[in-house]
Amino acid sequence: MEDGATMPNYSCAIALVLALLTPLGSTTASAGDLGARIAQQGTAKGVASCMTCHGADGGGMAATGYPRIAGLDADYMAKQLGDFRAGKRNNPVMVPMAMNLTEEEIAAVSAYYEVMPIPVPAAQPPDDSVSKAAVDLALWGDWTGRGLPSCGHCHAPDGNGIGSHFPGIADQPASYIKAQLQAWQTGARMNDPLGLMKAVADRLTDAEVEAIAGYYATQPGAPAAPAENLTKAGGNNGGAANGVQIGEIPHHGDPPSGRTAEGEGYFTSPAREDLPEGPFGEIVREGRDIFENTNAHRVSSEYVGNKQACGNCHLDAGRLADSAPLWAAWVAYPAYRAKNKKVNTYIERIQGCFQYSMNAPDSKAGRPPSADSDTILSLVAYSYWLATGAPTGDNTMPGRGYPRLKETKQGFEPARGASVYAAKCALCHGTDGAGVTLADARTLFPPLWGRDSYNWGAGMHNVDVAAAFIKHNMPLGLANTLNDQDAWDVASFMNSHERPQDPRFQGDLAATTELFHANKFDYYGKRKSEQGYLLGERPAAR
Amino acid sequence: MEDGATMPNYSCAIALVLALLTPLGSTTASAGDLGARIAQQGTAKGVASCMTCHGADGGGMAATGYPRIAGLDADYMAKQLGDFRAGKRNNPVMVPMAMNLTEEEIAAVSAYYEVMPIPVPAAQPPDDSVSKAAVDLALWGDWTGRGLPSCGHCHAPDGNGIGSHFPGIADQPASYIKAQLQAWQTGARMNDPLGLMKAVADRLTDAEVEAIAGYYATQPGAPAAPAENLTKAGGNNGGAANGVQIGEIPHHGDPPSGRTAEGEGYFTSPAREDLPEGPFGEIVREGRDIFENTNAHRVSSEYVGNKQACGNCHLDAGRLADSAPLWAAWVAYPAYRAKNKKVNTYIERIQGCFQYSMNAPDSKAGRPPSADSDTILSLVAYSYWLATGAPTGDNTMPGRGYPRLKETKQGFEPARGASVYAAKCALCHGTDGAGVTLADARTLFPPLWGRDSYNWGAGMHNVDVAAAFIKHNMPLGLANTLNDQDAWDVASFMNSHERPQDPRFQGDLAATTELFHANKFDYYGKRKSEQGYLLGERPAAR
Asked: Is B537 left (phi over 0), alpha (psi -120 to 50) or beta?
């Protein structure tokens, strides 16, 4: 290898690819052969070899903007080829190729590239001029004002994608990422589920597109994290959940514009970069980490009995108006709560989140963190810092909690909600409602029911609370696009599933129902699950 | 007695007095006889009987403004008679009487009246028109802007006085109280220690004088609470402590004007009457009670190992600017503290007060209340409510903490401070520094050293902290009247006495000194007490 030190990486990569021509993983031998042949030689029908443009190692070509395809999710790639063929995605080079590929060939070549090792790119100098804006958008988004989730919120924090709907964008040529974002903006590309990429790209400036492209081009590539419970994007079928197509929203009329209009007048927390160094800043950062990665965090995971994180219900790391922002909560405690019929400190309020939303009774500790624990200190410090400048005692700050949704004439109905769920929610939360957890235990898309979701004591189990949250915050990046009826119905569908027991349960379902679940927005002890038991009767346990 | 139902109370009272002519208590038989004779018959030198004006029962005469003298502290009364005789107090009737009384006669008649039962007044209808303003001033004062302590702060909460310098004012004729307040205002009366009454009365409006007089006239009378360690006001000697006269400040020039000027621009907490009803208001009220009566409060006393209350160091129940007000503290936590080298929540900060200022290690519980205790909840709620409207995170609010006092060229010296103490402080805190505690365990004047004071871990044990507190807050009602040098010196005198051990002490005085008491404002482990031991070596224990 010492001789090879002067060789271009390209040659090294070819050698690597050749060494790996034997198919690996789940592809069959014959499909593998077929895939390899197309990739290297093209087809008899005039399809050029993929290598021609995407490189011998599948790494793409930065100069021309040809994407890396090595290591991409096969279902994602198959969908793209299908879309080229069906006229749902435009590209002068790819459309004629795809039109001459059979379903079988598409599947084979996609599978071939899925298992192809991702080439190690040459070291690139960091681009300081764009990095900050890019990192901000990639990792944090810009929720307030624009309703922009971070790129990582769907494409995974490392940018390598999740399942087959959210492709890896790390280690793609900057020119490719930029071209795609521009294509979403102009409508030249429109094969995105729910119209999500159109909605997001429309809110980006040219400089931001440039910055994001530059950022992800320098991030290390890796295979997408698997998410078996999510609908597949493979072939040309779109995803199907409960028999309903995942909506590819037609791009006519104005796309969702984010929160700009209604965002005016909301309180603004200090900017992330204004967080001071030193011990206080460290504790605040720790609090933010706990908030975002509660069930995976070294300090806090002991108290979490499911796969929830604080940030699942409080978007933008607790900053977002109408998403129960921490700044509004901080200044409103201590306060009397009807839930436990006493005055609660902010700490007690947070402990309630652990007890119910994080299902602490099923955790290792079996209880929420104590009032004087480091976990509580960090969360308190983070909340306090977010509220910098907010007036103490003001429990009427605009954007506080989830703005209540008016009841509709039709009421709410889980059966109707099932269709909404399949069309709008299953994409991320899965047909089984189990969401997506990363290998390091972090929750990407939270579980909505079942053993890893919030328990029957959490506020979110109430249909009215859930409907309000959903209307103003879901789907991610498309807040306020569901009509009220759909929000009510899908909330009722979500909350008509079984979940972990209410920690206040003392052995008598009827008594618990009467004591804690009397309101009409609450299915506990009153409605039967799909399994035929009253909800709360056979609660999901770990 | 049924026949007597139509008799005036006056006659009943005469009967009572006659039945009690046999002297009681500590007066000698002969002195008692002498006192009774003067009271009932006057003297051969033309002194009229006291009964003539003050009534047969010693209850005074509301119509003419003659005060009740039955049950008054003998030393207080003797001082007044002495002052009339010496021309230090003016009254056209009393001066000629007193001039014809001998020292012996003054002592005898004062002793006679001290033990005379206080007549039970006829029930009086409550005067709603004045009660609120009066109750506010009597029980709470008006610190902010006027620097007015409550009347009860010196005359005891029930208005019946403490020791011999602070006479009972409850159950005195309204006309008498009004006349005295006016006399302080005009300078017609000026025999008050430290000029306190002049300073206070000058800040009252005519309507307030009227209201206070009306309020106390309807309060039940009782003997003054004893305070043996306080200097005596008896005879014509004034009080002497460590050989220094308690200052009777000459009434020339402008009296201290309170805080009006410097009070401008300070944050203002919600008014007491704006505290809402309901569970939240109840908890806040409980917090205020704990704050004011910490060592005597049902809920909190278990954690207090001395005779301190929160309100001793945070005047006006935690509201007063420059007196470490709670509103400024609330918005500044969590914060890093060098004292324990970590970020502290507000709760942890309060626990620190219990641990050190309240000397929790010597309490029944042996530790501060836990973070999730009712005591902490109440104090948190009270602080939070006081901070209503204050900007979260602002640790620069004007009036925060005790404004630091510039060091003087002379430095500070306990020997000089002893004189300041005797002149300005012993009046309330006693020559032994033990302060005054009421029968119900409430602290009226806090102990400044010894076993019932704050321990060696409290911030107040630092001379600089104490000097800043004293300068801006002491003597009560005379804030900012000590010059800086006196404030430094008297703080050093106070803190050169022994007090309870630092809870961080692990058995090695030198090590504890080095770890926690290295600064130059700290005498722990570095200076010898009067007993010849290094401070901290033989700490005061309960």
From this structure: alpha
Instruction: Centre a 10 Å sphere on the Cβ of residue B248 and count the other Cβ atoms it contains.
Output: 17
Contacts of B335 in chain A (CB under 8 A): 280
| Count of residues in chain A | 542
In 10 A of CB B34, how many CB atoms?
Answer: 22
pLDDT digits (tens, 9 = 90+) for B243-274: 445 554 444 344 454 554 445 689 999 999 99
- Chain B partners of A379 at a C-beta cutoff of 8 Å? none
CA B343 to chain centre: 36
Could you read off the pLDDT of A136-193 as tens digits, one per residue? 899 999 998 789 999 999 999 999 999 889 999 999 999 999 999 999 999 999 898 9
Coil, helix or strand at residue A424: helix
Residues in B touching A393 (Cβ below 8 Å): 384-385, 387-389
Query: Does B372 contact A377 at a Cβ distance shorter than 8 Å?
Result: no
Residues of chain B positioned with their CB less than 8 A from the CB of A333:
384
Distance in angstroms (rounded) separating the CA atoms of residues B59 and B11:
13
Instruction: Tell me how far the alpha carbon of residue A381 is from its chain's centroid.
Output: 26
- What is the H or E stretch that residue A491 is in? helix A484-494
Rg over CA atoms, chain B: 25
* Amino acid in position B364: K
Buried b (16+ CB within 10 A) or exposed e, B79-110: bbbbbbbeebbebeebbebbebbeeebbbbbb
> Chain B residues contacting A, CB < 8 Å?
278-280, 283, 327, 330-331, 333-336, 342-343, 345, 347-348, 370-372, 376-377, 380-381, 384-385, 387-394
Reported confidence tier of residue B226, pLDDT bands at 50, 70, 90? confident
> Using the beta-carbon criterion (under 8 Å), do A393 and B377 form an inter-chain contact?
no
Measure in Å the smallest separation between the Cα of A378 and chain B Cα atoms.
9
Q: What are phi and psi of B374, to 5 degrees?
A: -65, -35
What 3-state class would DSSP assign to A2?
coil
| Helices within B187-336 (DSSP H only) | 196-201, 206-217, 260-263, 278-292, 310-313, 315-318, 326-330
The pTM score is 0.88
Closest CA to B162 of B436, B431, B425: B436
Average pLDDT over residues A254-279: 74
The secondary structure element, H or E, covering residue B343 is strand B342-344
- Taking CB atoms and an 8 Å cutoff, what residues of chain B touch A278? 336
* Contact criterion met (CB < 8 Å) for B389 and A389: no
3-state helix, strand, coil in chain A (%, to 5): 45, 5, 50
> Distance (Å, rounded) from C-alpha A54 to C-alpha A61?
6
Q: Tell me the nearest-neighbour CA distance from B332 into chain A, angstroms.
A: 9
HSE of B520 in the Cβ direction (CA atoms, 13 Å)? 4
A446 prior amide bond cis, ω within 30? no
Residues whose CB falls within 8 Å of the CB of residue B500, separated by 6 or more in sequence, listed in order: B305, B306, B359, B361, B362, B451, B453, B454, B455, B456, B539, B540, B541, B542
Residues pairing with A61 in the sheet: A66
